[in-house]
Design brief:
This protein is α+β, with helices and mostly antiparallel strands and 692 residues long. It contains 18 helices and 33 strands. The protein has a seven-stranded mixed beta sheet, with helices on both faces. Strands 4, 6, 7, 14, 15 and 16 form a six-stranded mixed beta sheet that branches. The longest helix has 17 residues. The termini are far apart.
Amino acid sequence: MVFSYNWLQSFFIKKLPKPDKLAEVLTMHSFEVEGLKKIGRPARNASRSDAGGDWALDIDVLSNRGSDCFSHLGIAREISAILNLGLKNTSVKLPACSVGRKEDKSTKAKDYIKVEVKEPKLCSRYTARVITDVKVGKSPKYIQERLAVCGLHAINNIVDAANYVMLETGQPMHAFDFGKVSGTQTKKIIVRKARKGEGIVSLDDEKYKLDEDVLVIADGNDALAIAGIKGGKKAEIDSETKDIVLEAANFDYHTIRKASKKLGLKTDASWRFEHTIDPNLTEIAIDKTAAIIQEIAGGKIAKDIIDYYPKKVLPKKIKLDLDYVERLLGAAIPQKEIVKILKSLEFLPTGQAGPPTGQAGKFQVTVPTFRRDVSIPEDVIEEIARIYGYEKINPVFPSAVLIPPEKNEKIFWANKIRDILKEIGFSEVYNYSFLSSRQANNTNLIEVENPMSIEQKYLRNSLMPNLIKNVENNFKNFDEIKIFEIGKIFNSPNKEKTMLCAVIAKENNNQGFYELKGVIDSLLNQLGISDVWYDEHQPSPEESKLEIWEQGRCAEIKISGKEIGFLGEIENELAVFDINFEELMKQCSEEQIYQPVSRYPSSVRDLAVLVPKGVKVIDVLNKINNVGPKIVVDVDLFDIYEGRELPAGKKNFAFHIVYQSKTRTLLAKEIDEIQEKIINALESEPEWEVRK
């Protein structure tokens, strides 16, 4: 918003700093001055403050200060507070006016006009004055030039006076040609909502279609103006105008903003109303306008004003504790300085008398109604700091104890598992906690009373169905899918638990079971879990929960003899493990025993053993581990085979046996000796045969 330097100077007796210095002061304490421009030389009859030309200050006024600083008076108040300069008395007359307002006692405004406000919630105040026998013509040069600096064109002395006072005080106003208002003798001004389909021609000859969302100023027949936005053509001031009605009102900001947006019409008036205006400003502004019109256009001002103001807005009173000021700012500002700053902002501490007697350091601050942005003690403290100068407040580290939050084991281990699986090459998925009727695999599911869709009819009792659905939806686009999920399942209305489920899907893959077993081994090892074994399980017909698993390709996952989950293949291309996360978390440990990597090479020998179908993998592993000395560092099952080539009732286990020493390179002869001992131990079991 653009302001005139000379106009600001007219509010002060003392000389203001030079424009560039003033811009710096405002930027440091109030609002950023975005531009400074020299304007041409002044008119001969301009005031002394205009000597030497003018400067235009482009000030970025914050939106919360629209109630007072969208005006030269508001910016002058800021300058006065910052620089400790006294303002001239601006409550009665404009600095540019040489005389005050003179009313004609023989006539009264109410004899000419009556005001009816049909929308009191949308118009909190409506003030009007009547001036007769005016002479419409050009405005004085100083008015035209100051309007031009601020970006407004001069029209005639009546309209220019209203715009001039708007730029000075922030209160938009409008003048109607009294003779063009419908009615005889005492005429009526009505504030109402527009009728649906009602039209109006604006002062710039644009036609607008209105509706009930738009507030209008009307006479008994037609709309005279779009309230708070634009005047209409019907009651336009022209060279033939003799009598005028001045209007200064306060309209609901939301209504003006909505109407302005709907009509695509932004004006200086609407901009100010949209940011709220002090209702107590209307009388001051209309009196100033009447005074300047009387000086530059003659005329008689009818006695009194017409003022609709049913609910008067009073100054707010805010309690202020100086101890709290110091705690919040981190600086001890002297009490006298605080009182001085408050008074310079026209904030009156305890009736202008300083701190109250009896309780030192506590104030009751009366906030003027033009500061609608100030409503709580912190707002007042911010004003004190701003005027005092933030640069004077030394930065101090807060004296606070930072207490780290209590460790959440569930979140910690869930994140640890996520990191491990992602490093192995898995992607995490997040599915809804619901299943469709098609996915439902038993009658014990919890049905949702008001499902969002048929695809979300039941609460899930397993993570697997949705993960398998993820694979089905994406397998056509990928050769391999490796995904996992950590989430809750629901077995009854009052029972839920967290599970960890992972899937590997790969075309023509018959090693998914073993690949996923390796993933589990790696995962548990990094979680500090060592006592792990896999109990091969052969599902029987009565075990319905195991019907989905491929025989010979499924096993219980056990830690220290306790089952925590299940691993298996559902079909040749799909392997899954399903682990109780809550039970797994109990076994996890952050403590890791450091084992240095051997500097000596390892040697791998394969061994296949033919066993009866009832024999479990763990039984064979126990035999191998009991025989093998410390140089047997790992035994991995890599194949289970059952086929017609094998004797009836038999199956084949194939193992990798890894030999390695920490102190030397092993000789082939001693590896052969240990391998032979393992073979003898296995064949000592009836019906077990090591295949050579």
